Amino acid sequence: MNFTARLDNVFFHALLVGCLIATTALGSRYALSVDVTRESRNSLGPHSKAVLETITEPAVVEVYAGRGSLLVQAGRDLVERYARTNPLVQFKHIDTDRDPAIAREIEIGAQGAVLVKMGERRRRSQALSESAITGALESLMRAEDRRALFVTGHGERDASGSANHHYGEFSNRLRERGYAIASVNLTLDTLEARPGDLLVVASPQNTVQTDELDTLSRYITSGGRVLWLADDGDVSASAIEHLTGLQQLPGVIVDAASDALNLPRPDFAVVTDYTQHDATRGMDGISLFPRAVAFSADALYSNWTATPLLQSTPRSWNETGDIAGRIAPDDTGEQPGPLNFAWSLAPADAAGQLTLIGDGDFLANSWLGNGINLALGERLFDALSSAAPVQYTSLPARDRHVTLSQTQRGLLGATLFALLPLLLATATLVVWRRQAH
After folding, report:
1. Of the candidates 362, 324, 327, the residue with the CA atom closest to the CA atom of residue 256
2. 130 to each of 46, 84, 418, how far by Cα in Å?
3. For residue 361, what is the DSSP state?
4. pLDDT tens across the length of the chain (437 residues)
């Protein structure tokens, strides 16, 4: 090798070493991360970024766990995303192995805990997730505490129950967002309209007495906010008509769009377009309402104003017959869609509000994870509890459910049960014949 070639070789290696040193030095001072996942799953969502833009005082996400806990590194990685957008949000690890007394003081379980602090205020996060941390930050910035008050005494859905038709999972998500969950009895408890409160009547099965309805009416006219979830077959229809004059249409909503979604039954209200109400403005996605009932405002009392909030698609109708075999709209009181099954009602000259939704299943444990039901529920509670409307974050991954056409299912079946076994048998035969020779 001549002198020039050796010099080139030395120069190349020197340049390579210099580049490595420079890269290491820059990497120690500057961080660059690129999220290449579909839907930016390792980046903060638009709602979290919007919340971070409003934070003007330091916030600390404290993880209480032992040194070897996976919660520590997971918390550090998650909070790093927040800090990149707003450096006022910082991470802190409290080692409960070194200081077990503090674990007893704030009731830290074996799995650890996450607290979010801002000044003297703090919220316990129910989970180490973006929605939980953002909800806690959002709650800490609000002047008032928010409460979801579930009416009891008429066979309503249990706010904390674990059965399929109860609301335990959704209540946990509300707690993550800073809500306190409580129950009230319209006869025994004193109701006082208070900023941040939302009174929830969830599918009562037993008659709501006239004096209880009068209590609700006074609560609304004094500025209170009520969310009434009505189901087919419960006692909501008579109570709502007594209060407002809204009349429930017979039957349940059936939507031909349910077939394209491969739903098990056609008796769903499918929502794809949303109104400009604070609770629904800007939402994008499909929400599902099993056996929803529609309401007509033709006989609305003059002291109320009503605005449609949710409606089914034009391919829907209110089916009054049995949901079996091939069904189609007929003339027995059935009306073609779109049908209004959710209304926002306000009394004249009063600050209160009554929101009626003709379905209580969409927030139940068994249906909460379908479509954007959870996101819609969060938006509804935030807007109706007088909280400032925000962009939702709880969108499911788009590949959470795979929808295949009949042709695609046929091709997949033929590939799995015919083509692949044939290829495997052919390859086995070829190998066997070569070995035989």
Report:
1. 327
2. 11, 14, 44
3. G
4. 566 666 667 666 677 777 777 666 665 555 444 444 444 456 788 888 888 888 889 999 999 888 878 888 999 999 999 999 999 999 999 888 887 777 677 667 667 788 888 887 777 776 788 888 887 888 787 655 789 999 999 999 999 999 999 999 999 888 877 788 999 999 998 888 888 899 999 999 999 999 999 999 999 999 999 999 999 999 999 999 999 999 999 999 998 888 778 787 888 999 988 988 878 887 888 999 999 999 999 999 999 999 999 999 998 998 888 776 677 777 677 888 899 999 999 998 778 899 999 999 999 999 998 888 998 998 899 888 864 444 444 444 444 445 566 777 777 777 777 787 888 888 888 888 777 76
Read off the pTM: 0.66
Domains of the chain from N-terminus onward: 39-139 (3.40.30.10), 146-384 (3.40.50)
Query: Cβ neighbours of residue 278 under 8 Å, at least 6 residues apart?
Result: 383, 389
* Amino acid residing at 293: V
**Angle (nearest 5°) at CA 297 between 373 and 355:** 40
- What is the C-alpha to C-alpha distance for residues 378 and 374, in angstroms, rounded to an integer? 6
- The per-type count for the chain, helices as H runs and strands as E runs, is 12, 17
Pure H helices in 2-110: 3-29, 46-53, 70-85, 100-105
- Tokens found for residue 37: 């996942």
Q: How far apart are CA 232 and CA 241, in angstroms?
A: 15
Q: Which residue from 282, 300, 201, 294 is spatially nearest to 241, judged by alpha carbons? A: 300
Q: Max CA-CA distance within the chain?
A: 105
Other C-beta atoms closer than 10 Å to the C-beta of 51 total 24
